[in-house]
């Protein structure tokens, strides 16, 4: 049965080949194209096929092709990039999205936070294959606007799997949410209650509390979240308007670094649950612990560290017997690591000691994250023209290099005095971990349209975790029923059911 999922894409043809570098799955041709090199057919055969088939199927149904590559190691990603540039004669910047990394992160999430169901924050990276992979894995979605709702609903995700987690919404967006059956939303002021009541009579609210990790990359508390002193008034405002408040949400800040903030916020949320009961209001049953999670690439809080604090706080303040459903709204954690950006060098100037290069993406495109997200870039060369036999430039001398983006603004400087080998036009520079708050916030300044940057999907074998575990079991991880998720089933049929 497992093999059937993949036979749809012609995997059987691939299994007969010896030297496979990568295999392309294309839903349109329903045929696998395998290109030479080193994947053992055996490795493909040992994959958790049902789950993989599901992910490929949902991704491919959006018209994407998924290439199987040997591993998520730099050299295998770079080999794929090189192959793609060569076979498609590419000159424009592009992304490589490794779906296996998303699966691995999901697996790690389930292991670290078994009680917390992730509702992926679409704003962080709304790339269709990323969303469809999250949907296939059983995640819910946090949407912030009408168009995000439209995108997720159009993928066939059930409205019960979506939270409209923007505390201050446009009336027309609330109406739209109502029309597609997305009723769970957040609020933090009385004015929003009135607006919601007027535009969606079926709405169910989470009261968003202010909770700050002041050391996070972007603390959000200045803009959002009710103060403790406002809680009673806001609970009563909703009760008077006859809108149900079914739980509490918070967001300690994106790119969090202080685990204690989760603990404090969970403790504060419990007080709100108690306050509601003391006011004679119905018992709340959803706690939404927001985002802030990272893989810790840049010294932020690792998921495991956050999880230790969260699990302890949940045990103390929301023990399982309370029957409260716990959800979260992770964005960065799932989006950052799976995406690699490849850019081409198309200009060079040598001034004194410094080499200056022009590449075809920059501050007004993907690298807007340097300004908006305080990102740290980790470039590596792919010298496919100047060093054909050593494209990674291993062991070669490096020089102070400045790298400019393509627009005519001098602010469009991506790297300053960064050590890089000597490169020429037609060499490429590759940037890993470029999936969070990058593409989605780029512009089309000077006619360099960020939204036109292509994404190529890969699925790497030998990715830690899920490849050795029956990842099908992930689909069963979040079966606890709750009012807004009880239509969900994480059995084999869940995706097709949702898409009905
Ligand atoms: C309401 C809300 N939820 C979730 C997120 C995602 O946060 P993160 O990427 O830190 O997980 C954000 C980010 O701004 C947010 O505002």
What does this structure look like?
This protein is of the alpha/beta class. It folds into three domains: 8-99, no CATH class; 100-336, TIM Barrel (Alpha-Beta Barrel), CATH 3.20.20; 341-456, Lyase, Ornithine Decarboxylase, Chain A, domain 1 (Beta Barrel). The chain has helices at 2-7, 11-15, 41-45, 49-60, 74-88, 99-112, 128-137, 146-154, 171-179, 190-199, 231-240, 260-278, 303-317, 332-335, 369-372, 494-498; strands at residues 20-26, 31-39, 66-69, 94-98, 116-121, 140-143, 162-164, 184-187, 204-209, 244-250, 286-288, 325-328, 339-351, 354-359, 380-382, 399-404, 413-420, 428-431, 454-460. Strands 1, 2, 3, 4, 13, 14, 15, 16, 17, 18 and 19 form an eleven-stranded mixed β-sheet that branches. Strands 7-6-5-12-11-10-9-8 form an eight-stranded parallel β-sheet. 53% of the residues are buried. The model is unreliable at 1-22, 25-49 and 465-500 (pLDDT under 50). Pfam families: Orn_Arg_deC_N, Orn_DAP_Arg_deC. The modification N6-(pyridoxal phosphate)lysine is found at residue 123.
How would the blueprint of this fold be written?
Elements: H1 2-7, H2 11-15, E1 20-26, E2 31-39, H3 41-45, H4 49-60, E3 66-69, H5 74-88, E4 94-98, H6 99-112, E5 116-121, H7 128-137, E6 140-143, H8 146-154, E7 162-164, H9 171-179, E8 184-187, H10 190-199, E9 204-209, H11 231-240, E10 244-250, H12 260-278, E11 286-288, H13 303-317, E12 325-328, H14 332-335, E13 339-351, E14 354-359, H15 369-372, E15 380-382, E16 399-404, E17 413-420, E18 428-431, E19 454-460, H16 494-498
Helix pairs in contact: 4-7, 6-7, 12-13
The structure holds pyridoxal-5'-phosphate (PLP).
Pyridoxal-5'-phosphate (PLP) binds at residues 121, 124, 142, 165, 220, 251, 254, 290-293, 329-333.
